[in-house]
Amino acid sequence: MHTFVMYAPFRARNDRPLMDAILRDKVRIAEAVNATVITLHDAPQGYAQFASGAARKFVSDPHRLIGA
Fold first, then answer.
1. Measured between alpha carbons, how far is residue 34 from residues 3, 15, 23, 48 in Å?
2. In the chain, where are the structural domains located?
3. Which of 11, 23, 34, 53 is the most exposed place for a label (fewest CB within 10 A)?
4. Do the Cβ atoms of 51 and 58 come closer than 8 Å?
5. Looking at residue 8, what DSSP letter applies?
6. Would you say 36 and 49 are in contact if contact means Cβ atoms under 8 Å apart?
7. What is the spatial distance between Cα 32 and Cα 22, in angstroms, rounded to a whole number?
8. Which residues, 6 or more positions from 45, have their beta carbon under 8 angstroms from its beta carbon?
9. What are phi and psi of 14, to 5 degrees?
10. Distance of alpha carbon 46 from alpha carbon 40, whole angstroms
């Protein structure tokens, strides 16, 4: 006999407090994942660093809406 178990309800139940904390600015997610905001002009250097194995994430902000 085979059983198929869905874990989505368990995950959704546990993700809700995290999502609420992020939306209410109680968690600085960019700092937690080591994200760096770059402009479109800086994208080639960011890609080169990412390709070489840099331990950070790059977020492109071509219209400077995030504010690095």
1. 39, 20, 18, 17
2. 28-68
3. 53
4. no
5. H
6. no
7. 11
8. 38
9. -85, -25
10. 10
DSSP string covering 9-51, please? Answer: HHHHHHHHHHHHHHHTTSS-HHHHTTEEEE-STTHHHHHHHHH
pTM over 0.85: no
CB atoms within 10 A of CB 21: 12
Q: How many residues does the chain have?
A: 68
Could you list the pLDDT tens digit for every one of the 68 residues in the chain?
666 665 555 566 677 888 888 888 888 877 888 888 888 888 899 889 989 988 888 888 888 787 64
For residue 40 the two structure tokens come to 């479109």
Residue bearing tokens 């760096």: 36
